[in-house]
Amino acid sequence: MRFWKTEVVLAHRLCIHGRVQGVGFRAFVFREAGLLGVDGWVRNRLDGSVEALVWAEESTIDALLIRIEDGPGWGRVDRVDVTVETGGGGQPNGFNIRADR
Fold first, then answer.
1. Which of 39, 57, 47, 62 is nearest to 16 (CA)?
2. Strands 95-97 and 50-56, bridge-based pairing
3. With left for phi above 0 and alpha for psi between -120 and 50, is residue 18 left, alpha or beta?
4. Active-site residues: which are they?
């Protein structure tokens, strides 16, 4: 008998701090999420950070976080705050860039 480890898809809210606005960071996250098959969205925050809500298996989230921490060439990531979302709201299909908030 074989047992496979299956991962649960959870929503993770990422708050990315550093030089992350005006450097193509949202487009970078959009591209990387697409390459990894992550669903969700990304947007600029009025406080200068970038926020993303992403749905994926834990291992895929880890891979996305590694890429985000490296960031695009002109950006700089000082820290990424990650929280798991347990509230309502359904998983989107695909990934998009949202208006600033």
1. 47
2. unpaired
3. left
4. 26, 44
Residue 80: count of CB within 10 angstroms of its CB: 17
- Residue pair 95/34 in contact (Cβ under 8 Å)? The answer is yes
What pLDDT score does 93 carry?
86
The rounded distance, in Å, linking the Cα atoms of 5 and 76 is 35
The CA-based angle 75-80-83, given to 5 degrees, is 150
CATH code: domain 16-75 is: 3.30.70.100
Task: Read off the pTM.
Answer: 0.87
Residues of the chain with pLDDT under 70: 1-8, 87-89
Strand 10-19 vs strand 76-85: parallel, antiparallel, or unpaired? antiparallel
Contacts of 16 (CB under 8 A, 6+ apart): 25, 49, 50, 51, 52, 68, 77, 79, 80
